[in-house]
Amino acid sequence: FVTIIGSPNVGKSTLMNRFVGQKVSIVSQRAQTTRNRIMGVVSRKGYQMVFLDTPGVTLPKNKLGEYMVKVAYDSLNEVEAILFMVDAVNGIREKDEAIIEKLRTVRAPVIAAINKADAATLDNIETARERLEKEGFIKEIIKISAADGRGMDKLEAALKACLVEGPQYFPEDMVTDQPERVICGEIIREKALTLLKEEVPHGIGVGVDKMALRDDGMYDVWATIYCEREGHKGIIIGRQGSMLKRIGSEARKDMEWLLGARVNLQLWVKVKNDWRNSASVMKELGYE
What we know:
Layout: E1 2-6, H1 12-20, E2 38-44, E3 47-53, H2 63-74, E4 81-87, H3 94-103, E5 110-115, H4 122-133, E6 138-143, H5 152-160, H6 180-195, E7 205-213, E8 219-227, H7 230-237, H8 242-259, E9 263-271, H9 279-284
Parallel strand pairs: 1-3, 1-4, 4-5, 5-6, 8-9
Antiparallel strand pairs: 2-3, 7-8
């Protein structure tokens, strides 16, 4: 088991999706896209690695934020290796320093990946490397690009060297522990994050209310997008429903690829004021 940890938007989900070979964790340019711990299974000849993609670590502003930080840090105690990711373009920031301080206390070996090597200058990369080399607990530092794949073979070899012998926990054709229903909800949230204005996305939650398979092999999916303000509801729906239709259309394409069947997706938008501070609503949406 390998935990992937880092500050928001360093490319953790992109990296896990590349390792697994398909999308199991949603990706967007918005920080803190991942909210739960997502598991991705990589089966190779002679070994199996299970990656835990965690939420980006930052200063929490509400109960959902506190939950996300707890999920990230709790996973450090459950694994054989830790993959600490930093962004070569932005360098080591205060958020990364807080994670480094936490990593000094863990027992598992730490491999550091300097990501976004495709977009960074050599000076950016070397500055990040020099900072990480000051930490004696980091076993190896590797520059990579999760976007185009460079350095991934070397990174996988370094992580493989940290594995301990044990049973194969999952079938070779399994790539994630996430139920299809959960993945469908995350796909909808990903499209909303991508298409909506800056002030709306972090206040969005998605619940898949029902999935049903018809006799002809088509899926009916009913889902609700939750937001925190009445004004946000109007933005999500858009003029004459145009934005909601775009979100639904984009999400349906990915769902059909995931399920291998046609999908009839029905979306609703509801307001739940300050839901990110409501334990009951968070539990309802799977954050518990």
